[in-house]
Each structure stands twice: as structure tokens, then as C-alpha cells.
Amino acid sequence: MTFHLIGIGGAGMSVVALLLAARGHDVQGSDAKDSATLAGLHEAGIRTFVGHDASHVGPGMRVVVSSAIRATNPELVRARELSLEVLHRSEALALAAAGLDFVAVAGAHGKTTTSAMIAVALRAAGRDPSFAIGGTVLGVGSGAHLGRGTAFVAEADESDASFLNYTPRVAVVTNVEPDHLDHYGTREAFERAFRDFVGRIVPGGLLVACADDDGARALLADARAAGVRTMSYGGAGADLLVEGDDLVWGGQRHHLELAVTGAHNRLNAAAAFAVGVELGVEPAEMAAALSAFRGTGRRFEPHGERRGVRVIDDYAHHPTEVEATLRTARQEAGAGRVLVLFQPHLFSRTRDFAERFAAALDHADEVVVTAIYPSREEPIPGVTSGLITTRMVRGTYVPDRHAAAREIARRARPGDLVLTMGAGDVTELADEILGLL
Questions:
Q1: pLDDT tens digits, residue range 329-388?
Q2: Catalytic residue among 48, 75, 111, 323
Q3: Of 3.40.605.10, 3.40.50.300, 3.90.190.20, 3.30.70.1050, which CATH number belongs to 301-436?
Q4: What does the pLDDT look like over 84-122, one tens digit per residue?
Q5: Is residue 111 flagged as an active site residue?
Q6: CATH number of 2-88
Q7: CB of 52 within 8 A of CB of 32?
Q8: How would you class 144 by CB atoms within 10 Å of its CB: exposed for 0-12, middle for 13-18, buried for 19 or more?
Q9: Architecture of 97-292 per CATH?
Q10: Which residues, at least 6 apart from 203, have a Cβ–Cβ distance to it below 8 Å?
Q11: pTM of the full predicted structure?
Q12: Catalytic residue among 37, 48, 75, 112
């Protein structure tokens, strides 16, 4: 049977395609535009089409979609006409992971880095896990791998509740900070989805969650009351203590030599450590294996330096992520300034968090904010990036992203660190800024 993936060039869908193909399935797919991702899939033996056309879909296929695919997509319409089985991306991923110890990493932010840390450290410890991560793992060259080990590590997407399609042996929750209210509607519904996620853990499985986050701490309490095994990590009172660059667990202290910086990454490493220990890796070995992690694409990823100005790209698109990234940038910049080109992601998120974005971005020395990247959304009347900049001390709104790149390059001077930041196509501007410099 052939799997046809609509939107195969997306980070999450391309991972599923590679994993299904690695398991011996016939895989093909289409995307709206050509990309390096499509070229890589083609090299891996997967048929790809540029553009969506009903002729790509035929009888007997299983069609895979993400929540970003609209009901009017001609390939999806054709699949419905043929009464084909239509799977959500997460359901196809669960098929690829059948029979393995499933590790699902969820949270409003931090899940890409944490899941990648787990995968890389398990590899370094000789466990050769399978993994599906919505980003490129530096040093590995892909976000997908079908290993020979018994573990399958996946970044579990809460944005559309599709993480409820998984039945993990280990569930990791980095935080439960309300987001994606365009889907959930209310904070209560968002938090309820995480409780349902914990309810999907297999009998005898483990919840690993951050005790430093209010939402995750409440989730831990609910899980314990329901009889679910838990391991908390973080500061005082946690089962696994993070003390500077050390982890304290079971009366033993384990030093971390991480290649990535920031307090948030030490917490991510603690979560990864807990998973490794649960899966049978010796604590000292797991702590040492975490040093093999070099980061993921678009997570504080250096793009180069020109005229003494460093340019770094980051995926941060939630206020908490933005603030954490800027704290790291401030340390990295030393005596230099931190300049940011920020592209908000989604009209609804901009509307809901404009004030928090403004406060977070004001940690930088200079900020240019460009137009909102809409992704799956239609415009909301009155919602522009100006909602953020009008609340800022040091914010300038430049709607055209190329003009925004020119403006940030004009302001940069030797010693500065420039960040392109957001979940949309702002990433393309990092190299553009380098060219302008």
C-alpha cells in the first residue's frame, strides 16, 4: 500500500515520510513549493510532487495530512471522493513506531530540543533509538531515524491535540503554558488536553515533568493522585535536582558538560537524563552522553559573521521562548548589543500575547518587528505586529520583511549579535542580513 503525504515538505511530515519509508512502505507526497527538504526526500527514494493536484492520489492509497491542510485541498478532496483512509500525521507516526518503547515529549516550548537531546544521548550511549523530531538535529543531519534499538523518541504536538493519538511508555512535559488558544478556545481546555495526554501513558509508564513550571507541577500532582508514576525535575523539591551544571539524583551528583547554553537547556537536559535512566541507561553514562548534543536547526543556530557582527537564527515564537532566547543571547553577546528581527507567528497568538511579547522583546537593545506570518490562519481585523511594537520601549514595526532585514543590518555595528526570530520564513532573512552586512 502507498502512503501519500500532503504537505510532505513540512518539518513534521518529512520526518513521517522518512520513517515510513525506512519501515519498508511505499511513500510519496506533494508540497506547494520546491525546497531542499523535497530534494532530500527524493534522494531518499521517496516520490515527490511540486504543487497539489488530484491526479497525485489514486485508489488504494492511505493519505496523510496535518492540521495545516485545508479541506479544499484538491488531493484531500480526491481522497474523500475515493473513500480512502485519511490519517493525521500523528496517526501515521504512531504506525511507524508500533512495537517500540514510545517516548513522547510535549510542552508549549522546549519539546524539540528536549526530544533531540534524548535521541542524541541515547545514540551516544549505544542504544540507537528511532526518532521523529520536527527539526534538523545538528550532527545527525535529519530529524528522523529508524534505529535498531527498542526506543522511539517523538516530539508530541499539542497545538491541535494530535498528541492524544500516542500511547507513550514515557511522557515528558516541559511545561503547560497556555498557547494555541485558536484551537482550544480557553486555558482550561488547553490544560485538560495535557491531563488527557497523561491518561494515555501505558500502565506502569512514567510521567517526567518540570517542577519549575506551575502548569506542569499541577499536572504532576494530578498524575500522582491518579496512580501514575512520576519524576519531577528542576529546582528545590524536585525528584531530580538541577543545581548549576550538576544534576542530583539518588544521592549522587552528576556533572553536565553541555555544548548548548542557557538555564532552559539545563532543564531540558534534566528531562533527557530522566528518560535515559528510565530506559535503563546508567545515570553517569547518561549524564556524559548528553555532551554529544550540539543543538537543533533553528534553535540558536549560528549563520555566520560579517564585519564583526554575528547572525543567529532561532525558532522562538512564544513569549517565554523569546525571553529565554534573549537571556542566552545577552550572555553570548558579552559587551556587545543584542539586535532582534522578530516575525510573529499567527494572528491569534499575536492578539492573545501582544503585551507579553513586548515585555520579552524589550530584553534586547534594538528590535525590528515585521508582519505576522499567518501559517494556517486568516487575518483577524485590527491584528498586526503593531500591537506588539506600540507596547514596547525599543520596538520598530517594519511590515515588509526584506525592508526589516535592511533596517536591522543598517543598525548593526561590530560586536553586535543579531537574532532572526520566529516560526515562519524569517529564517530566510539570516543569510540575507549577512549579505547586506
A1: 999 999 999 999 999 999 999 999 999 999 999 999 999 999 999 987 899 999 999 999
A2: 111
A3: 3.90.190.20
A4: 999 999 999 999 888 899 999 999 889 999 999 999 999
A5: yes
A6: 3.40.50.720
A7: yes
A8: buried
A9: 3-Layer(aba) Sandwich (3.40)
A10: none
A11: 0.82
A12: 112
